[in-house]
Amino acid sequence: MRVKAAIVGAAIALALVLAVVASGQFGTRRRISPHETTSGAVDSAALSITYGRPSMRGRKIFGELVPYGRVWCPGADEATTLTSDRPLKIGDLALAPGSYTLWMLPEAGDWMLVVNKQTNVFHTRYNSSYDLGRIKLEKKALASPVEQLTFAIVKNPAGAGGLINMTWETTEVSAPFTVGQ
């Protein structure tokens, strides 16, 4: 009787373990920051930016959580990725169609956008040997804070090309781009 009860108990325990494993909750960490892809069509190019969206949650972001003078990946978890099906020119940097990771070098004054060819990498694994170039970002202060990091791809209302915008806390930075043939 005791052996039969022990076998039944072991079978129930095994069934519970298998149920937890099958549900995906065993051995995985729940993400705090939701992930998003923002897309846009500009001058016949299909562009997308895939990124994790951390929140301020009462923290001072720029100059503290994100220190000045150090390359930073704007996002959480996997590195932020820009994908285009057409050639792009961001500042003086020409990019072939494909995917690239976006990094930033924030400063109290000017910021730089760093475009890197290494994809499928975690946001803390920056390797400058894969950099394709750096572009000065246009920066402005926002009157109201933006709680969650946000990217947007915006068509230039005044003509050809567009902007890659990032807003978070009270900062907005943008990089103008044009689409090649």
Number of strands: 10
| Poorly predicted regions | 13-27
What gross morphology would you assign? globular
Query: Could you report the average pLDDT, rounded to the nearest whole number?
Result: 86
Secondary-structure element order, as H and E? HEEEEEEEEEE
Structural class: mainly beta
- Report the C-alpha radius of gyration, rounded: 22 Å
Main beta sheet: 6 strands, antiparallel
Report the span from N to C terminus.
79 Å
Strand content: 35-45%
Number of helices: 1
In total, the number of domains comes to 2
**Which strand order does the major sheet show?**
1-2-3-6-7-8
The helix content, as a percent range, equals: 10-25%
Please outline the helices and strands.
Layout: H1 2-23, E1 35-42, E2 45-52, E3 81-84, E4 88-90, E5 93-95, E6 98-105, E7 112-116, E8 131-136, E9 138-155, E10 162-179
Antiparallel strand pairs: 1-2, 2-3, 3-6, 4-5, 4-10, 6-7, 7-8, 9-10
Keywords:
mainly beta; four-stranded antiparallel β-sheet
How does this model look, in words?
This protein has 181 residues and is mainly beta. It contains 1 helix and 10 strands, in the order H-E-E-E-E-E-E-E-E-E-E. 23% of the residues are buried. Residues 13-27 have low confidence and may be disordered.
